[in-house]
C-alpha cells in the first residue's frame, strides 16, 4: 500500500487575505495595529483589498509578520525562506539588545505573539541587570 501526501496551496487567497490570516494567527487585534507597527498609515493594509501595495510597504509588513513577500503574494506556501548559513551564524552583541528599539526590531515575535514595547523594556532591564558587574 502506498501512502500519498497531498498539500493544497492557498492559491485563491489574495494578498490582503493572507495578511489578515497570518496577523490573526500571530495575535494582532486588528490590521490597523499591524499597519502602524509597520510604519504605514492606519488604513493602508485595508486599502490593499482593491489596490496593489507598493513593494516597500509589503516588505515592511512581511518583516513585522516574519514571513517572506513571496508568501504574502501567494507565490509560495513556505512562510519564511530557508535561511542561509551566514544568517544562521550571524552573531549579535547582547549590548545592542539592551536598547528597547533594537529589541523590537530584532525580536519580531515570541510564541506567535508580537513583542510589545513593555516586553522590550522588560527584556532590556533583565539583560542590563543580569550582565551588570560581570566584567
CATH architecture type of the largest domain = Orthogonal Bundle
Determine the structural class based on helices, strands and strand pairing. mainly alpha
Q: Determine and state the CATH class of the largest domain.
A: Mainly Alpha
Instruction: Give me the CATH fold name of the largest domain.
Output: 434 Repressor (Amino-terminal Domain)
Percent of residues in beta strands: under 5%
Give the CATH H-level superfamily of the largest domain: lambda repressor-like DNA-binding domains
Q: Please give the count of helices.
A: 8
Strand order of the largest sheet: 1-2
Cα distance spanning the termini? 63 Å
| String of helices and strands | HHHHHHHEEH
Give structural notes:
The protein is mostly helical. The protein folds into two domains: 15-73, lambda repressor-like DNA-binding domains (434 Repressor (Amino-terminal Domain), Orthogonal Bundle), CATH 1.10.260.40; 94-133, no CATH class. Helices cover 47% and strands 3% of the residues. The protein is built from eight helices and two strands, in the order αααααααββα. The protein has a two-stranded antiparallel ribbon. The model is unreliable at 5-10 and 84-89 (pLDDT under 50).
Amino acid at each position: 500500500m502506498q501512502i500519498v501526501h497531498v498539500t493544497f496551496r492557498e492559491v485563491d487567497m489574495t494578498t490582503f487575505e493572507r495578511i489578515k490570516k497570518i496577523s490573526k494567527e500571530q495575535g494582532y487585534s486588528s490590521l490597523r495595529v499591524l499597519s502602524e507597527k509597520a510604519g504605514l498609515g492606519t488604513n493602508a493594509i485595508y486599502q490593499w483589498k482593491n489596490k496593489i501595495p507598493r513593494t516597500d510597504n509589503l516588505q515592511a509588513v512581511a518583516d513585522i509578520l516574519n514571513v517572506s513577500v513571496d508568501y504574502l503574494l501567494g507565490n509560495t506556501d513556505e512562510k519564511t525562506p530557508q535561511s542561509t548559513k551566514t544568517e544562521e551564524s550571524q552573531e549579535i552583541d547582547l549590548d545592542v539588545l539592551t536598547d528597547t528599539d533594537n529589541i523590537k526590531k530584532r525580536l519580531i515575535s515570541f510564541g506567535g505573539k508580537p513583542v510589545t514595547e513593555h516586553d522590550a523594556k522588560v527584556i532590556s532591564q533583565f539583560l542590563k541587570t543580569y550582565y551588570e558587574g560581570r566584567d
